[in-house]
Amino acid sequence: MTVPTTLRRAGLAAALMLSALQPLAQAAPSPLLDASHPVSWWFAFKFNAASFPGCGTAAPVNSCQFGGSPQGYTSGSSYSQQYVYASSSQPALSQGGGCIGDTPADPVGATFKQIYNGTLNYVVWNDQFYDDPSIASCSGNSCGAPWGHSKGVLAWDDQGNGVVMQVSTPSWPASGSAQYPRTSDGNTLGCVQDNDVQVSQHFFSLKLSHADVLSVLQGLANASVVTDVGNPQIVKNGGPADIQAAVDQLGQKSDSAAPQVSKLSSGVTLIAKPSALQVPPWQLVSAELGGVALRAATWWEGSKSTAIPTTTKAGAPACWDSSLPKPGPVAIATSGSWGGKIFSLQGGLGKNFNHAKIGVSTSGAAYAIFGDMNQEGSLSGNCASAQNGRGGLFFALPNAALAQSIAKLIGGSTAAAAAR
């Protein structure tokens, strides 16, 4: 039977109207450069207050969009939220505008906003929550060894598509949802009591598949990161059953002594160091990337006995595990430059120091590397010293343009070599 044209048109109109009433499918979570610009990855380096004080000019100062209020240290030249960034759409570093983390138009603020003001599932971890939230299994207001020295947020939708943001900032983030705000502190960079915006910091975000989300969760468990699966302020567990099961394994001290090395769908290599693998952190990264030579900039205090010096030759140090491949040399960057201005890359208290943990390969394949861990510990002697005895994650991104740009950023002076 032939359906009259008028009825066909009426049916089509009704179908279109019904379609218009259906909610639009939510886009999979992604790293965002701003509210309307998703990318596969981005990296941001926030300067210290001595080199680039205050904020850029493209946004109001300290709007505290995720809660909190401007702190005493966010005045004059005692803080910095100026930054440089790169992304999959523009892999060479360029300077950003406004206050990083405090606007919907910067990578950190835009990416976190989709989590904090959205409906995604999430896990927030940080070894320095400072009791908001309180972690019952830690003594004091932060969590030392053998807990992982690791900070970040992972979020995923009900299909398992996800986004991870690694941060180096104490006390931020410390809530994954506006429905469960912090009760004693803010949740915005520059608006928390810890002065984490005085020193340099880094941020790295990566788009994840379902399988990638599982790999990251397994890495977090291997590294013994600090979280609490029973606290909705920092964990909302949902989505696919295998992801939920992996989340349930978090917030415990792992007894693993083997690194987890995973190749993610983006080509990024994820390396998870467990606390019981008591080896120098960046030597481990070199070894797992094929023994490439590295240059790393971390919280490194040359005056301390735990500051691991530059190594100039390949080969395993005394603090090593025979099951691991041999590392290449690791140079320690102690200064960098941007726009003709030199800044310190050493660790310490005050506004002239660096708390980012970034590196590049200087031989073999070109990698930009973003880590949780400082190059502090020991090459020999007390192999459990400092970060040797803690866990953390490293993301090694194969991208020559980004690696070259970061190498220039951290290409200043170098710490003295180890005596051999």
Automatic annotation (TrEMBL):
Signal sequence segment: 1-27
Keyword Signal found: yes
GO MF term (any one): deoxyribonuclease II activity
Keywords assigned: Hydrolase, Signal
InterPro entries recorded: DNase_II
A Pfam family: DNase_II
Domain of life: Bacteria
Similarity comment: Belongs to the DNase II family.
Alphabetical list of PANTHER family matching this protein: DEOXYRIBONUCLEASE II (PTHR10858)
Protein name: Uncharacterized protein
Species per Swiss-Prot/TrEMBL record: Chromobacterium alticapitis
